[in-house]
Amino acid sequence: MDVLMSDILTALIRIIVVFALALLTVAYLTYLERKVIGHMQVRMGPMRVGPHGLLQPIADGLKLFFKEDIVPTEGYRLTFYFAPILCLVCALILFAVIPFDAKFMISRLNIGLLYILSIASVGVMGIILAGWSSGSKYSLLGGLRSAAQIFSYEIFLGFSLMGPLMIAGSLDLVKIVEAQSVPFIVYQPVAFVIYLIAALGEINRVPFDLPEAESELVAGFHTEYSGMKFAYFFLAEYANMIIVSAIATIVFLAGWKGPILPGWMWFLIKMFIFIYFFIWVRATFPRYRYDQFMRIGWKIMLPLVLANIFVTGVVILFIGGY
Amino acid sequence: MREVYWPLILVAILAFGFGIGTIVISKLVGPKRPDPSKLSPYECGVEPVGDARKPFFIHYYMIALLFLVFDIEVIFLYPWALKFKEMGSFAFWEMAVFIVIFLGIFLYAYVKGVLEWE
To answer: For residue A302, which residues of chain B lie inside 8 Å, CB to CB?
Structure first.
């Protein structure tokens, strides 16, 4: 091992910078979401704490931090604590392989995309554990729904990324971006749309927020959670939203590439377009019913995404030109 | 930048440290006023009825089985997708056969009604 002290220090600084920025962005994403949805519904959104409510996320965070730590009597203590931590950790360590620029990333892996997909699968375990260890009927149902949903949509997510992969010929996120002289959204429009829908299902957002469905399941798998543990689920959900947007940016919109502005700025602009899209969808669409949701996934999206891979293969093989 | 794996360990340690540390500190500074009705599971205000860990709908289990099958397919398809350009038509037809077999499984599940939610 020829790891130098200075290497470790550089890595440590990068990790802390990325984590701090990620957590700050996540906190302000809640503010952004409330503001954007507020204005879409002709309301003001948060206004009280600081100018235009700018300190609202900090106030929320402090409030949750100083709350009482409650474990229900029916709950299993160990897994009850472990579940939110697992969710948050899985969301945070995904940031390790995101290239914000040609140079700035914590760790460059030649299997970057596979790493992201596998860690995202582990994150589901946190939700199942939370639902099961709470000892509440709502939580159990919410956890199960969530598990079935994320399982299904993860498959479509994996399949939809395969078309761009066949063109790029690498799992390394940096190489995928470098392979895009034209953004892959031009070659793979079907995969792009399926990716967006699968991403909505994967991160449990409206119109696919069935595990949380406030009106039927009373917040689903985190019914029994409060204080900091509840905040972790929230942080993880919004962090996953950022990750999903970042992957869409990297795989379909050529990542940091763009004229005039520096790379990281392009990356952030493209990423926030996706984040804005997710918020916009929440303000626009009603929630799907569970059977409809499963039907769309398995009966329409799966054949469609397999056909997309097939067509991509045929085009590469017999026509070429990528 | 060359490929390095060890920062991932640092990332995991820091993430776990942050996760566990914040919960521990929050537990220390927060108030502690336990109360039997506060600690009972939430059931919209009425007294909780029975145990929460009941048998549940078999379909969740079926979906998990389907997930296993198709996730393996995804995992097998990834290396294929990477090397597709180099391997040409042989790889294409071989994978076509593989996908047809999986479509068979999918159709079987379809006909058996695994994908129906009633």
So the answer is: 70, 106
Nearest CA of chain B to the CA of A35: how many Å?
28
Residues of B in contact with A210 (CB under 8 A): none
Report the alpha-carbon distance of residue A115 to residue A113 in Å, rounded.
Answer: 5
Task: Say how far apart CA A288 and CA A212 lie, in whole Å.
Answer: 12
Per-residue pLDDT tens digits for A197-228: 989 888 877 777 776 666 666 667 777 788 88
pLDDT at A310: 85
Residues of A with Cβ-Cβ distance to B57 under 8 angstroms: 144
CATH code of the domain made up of B2-112 = 1.20.58
Rounded CA-CA distance A162/A309 in Å is: 7
Residue A10: closest CA among chain B residues belongs to which residue? B7
Q: What share of chain A is helix, strand, coil (3-state, %, to 5)?
A: 70, 0, 30
User: Is the pLDDT confidence value at A258 over 80?
Assistant: yes
Give chain A's radius of gyration (CA, Å).
20
- Closest approach of A270 to chain B, Cα-based (Å): 24
Nearest-angstrom CA–CA distance, A56 and A51:
10
CB-CB under 8 Å, A109 with B54: no
A19/B18 Cβ within 8 A: yes
Residues 6+ apart with CB under 8 A from A151: A124, B63, B64, B67
- Contact yes or no for B109/B103 (Cβ under 8 A): no
Residue A242 is which amino acid?
A: I
